[in-house]
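Researcher: I'd like a candidate sequence for this fold, 151 residues long. If you have to choose between options at a position, lean toward the conservative one.
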């Protein structure tokens, strides 16, 4: 009885083919997972960007005497509720240099369509009749900007 075995050349070719097939399958699997994750991140980023536009600044009023009173009226124009919590205001000059910052408390949740006027105090005087930039940041990260003329 004469038995013939697989030659070493054929064995090497078969091993190389199996290695290439395994690498191809792994590449396909990884790129599929990466595409799915990338799509989910894109969707979450779009939702986050949409939620950051929940609030609209209706008016901003600035005094000029120390302590400067800054009154900002905001409206929730989105569908989601803005939770109560700490809010911040940043006042900047015409060159976008930050002049002052302060925080205040949003006492109640801001439901869709609700208006609220928030009062902030800053310890820096503002020049009368000059325009200043006002950026308000609410709990959850919703930000909006406006301007006010110091009175």
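Model: Candidate sequence:
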């Amino acid at each position: 009885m004469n038995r013939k075995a697989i030659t070493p050349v054929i064995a090497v070719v078969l091993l190389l083919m199996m290695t290439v097939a395994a690498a191809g399958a792994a590449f396909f699997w990884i790129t599929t997972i990466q595409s799915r994750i990338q799509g989910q991140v894109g969707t979450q980023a779009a939702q986050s960007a949409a939620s950051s536009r929940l609030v609209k600044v209706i008016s901003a009023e600035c005094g000029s005497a120390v302590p400067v009173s800054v009154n900002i009226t905001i409206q929730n124009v989105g569908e989601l509720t803005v939770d109560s919590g700490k809010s911040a205001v940043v006042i900047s000059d015409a060159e976008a240099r930050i002049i002052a910052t302060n925080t205040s408390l949003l006492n109640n949740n801001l439901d869709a369509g609700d208006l609220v006027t928030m009062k902030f105090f800053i310890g820096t005087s503002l020049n009368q009749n000059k325009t200043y930039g006002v950026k308000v940041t609410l709990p959850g990260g919703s930000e909006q900007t406006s301007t006010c003329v110091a009175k």
